[in-house]
Amino acid sequence: MYNHMVSEAKTSELFMDFPFKTGEYEECPGSIKWAPHNSLDTWLGSPEIDGREDMGAFYATVRDPIFYAHHSNVDRFWGLWSATHKDFDVNRKKGCFFSVSVSLLPGV
């Protein structure tokens, strides 16, 4: 975990991912994607289930109860990483981010 959270993750791009657009191939996933995120998705996806329709298949992962615990832990890692990298401002980044100050519903 030290490698994925600290030594290989000096910048937000190295931790999470480089920005990419629809239709682009994701060439450089961040360290958090390799492990623990993708590793657990694959490990929890059972090859005995047709099409790996659990954590091993993107379209079916939300049907697996472990999905929520697993992604809550990924969010916890993000919180730990961002707390130790005070110079990172998510609202100034471009790519797959959003502004935490923007309302999700019009007029709310």
TrEMBL record:
Residues 64-75 form the Tyrosinase copper-binding domain. Pfam families: Tyrosinase (PF00264). InterPro entries: Di-copper_centre_dom_sf, Tyrosinase/Hemocyanin, Tyrosinase_Cu-bd. The keyword Hydrolase does not apply. GO terms for molecular function: metal ion binding; oxidoreductase activity. Keywords: Metal-binding. It comes from the Eukaryota. The keyword Metal-binding applies. Signal peptide: none annotated. This is Tyrosinase copper-binding domain-containing protein. It comes from Linum trigynum.
